[in-house]
Amino acid sequence: MASTTTRLDQQYGSSVRSVWASVLAAISTAFLRPGSWRDEDVAVFQRQALPVILAGERRIASLTAAYLEQLYRVEDPRAPRVSLDLDAVTGSALRGVDPAEVYERPFVELRTALSKGESLDAAVARGSHRLETIAKTDLQLARTHTVREVSADMPRFTYTVRVLQGEYDCALCMIAATQRYHKRDLAPIHPGCDCLVKTVTADYDPGQVIDEDRLNAIHDAVEAALGTFDRGGRAVDYRKIIIAREHGEIGPVLGYRGQRFTGPDDINIPT
Ligand SMILES: [Zn+2]
Asked: Model pTM?
């Protein structure tokens, strides 16, 4: 069974990665190619990018539903097919905010930087980074919302766990991967998080298996985030240093205990 689910994880993981790559490439091109970022450019960008993002979210949702169904068949070969309303797990359903409003933010970011005297290059880089973070977050929300929706109809599954995908791993994800969450709760994410979220039975225990390199990376990241951290505290239960904080738009977000919203950029929470 373990090898079956590992193979499923890999197939699903690589399908999702290719959706991420194509969506991010297409919207980045749409943002950069005009070479100007005025009001009329916002409308042109949105006409090109919003359908691409929505199609990406729907693809992630479909892939995720099919993956969970396969996982569930390992537990119960006679399980009925699940149905999923794609509109409920994509688009404005994710944040409760019109995507047109959300995808204007990279332009606002860019103009704000310009108004503060930053160079055009630096301002464009900020806008691009904001766009990428927003889109990654939305693609990941399509996944977590689908997991919550679909697993509700899978009585043998109780929890969700995450499987690190490697591409955008951060210390928070490494720690969070040692925990399980009840399936009715939206899996907490982190901006840029690309973790695979899977459903498991009540017997499953993710354990605290983190190798020395990863543990060091966690200590470094915590130190960078909090300014100080007891490096001698090797026995610290690192699971206790992360918390899930409710964010108005994107739901539970992983953060370090003691960390404020005004933390370093990489653990800040752009919306
Ligand atoms: Zn993650």
From this structure: 0.88
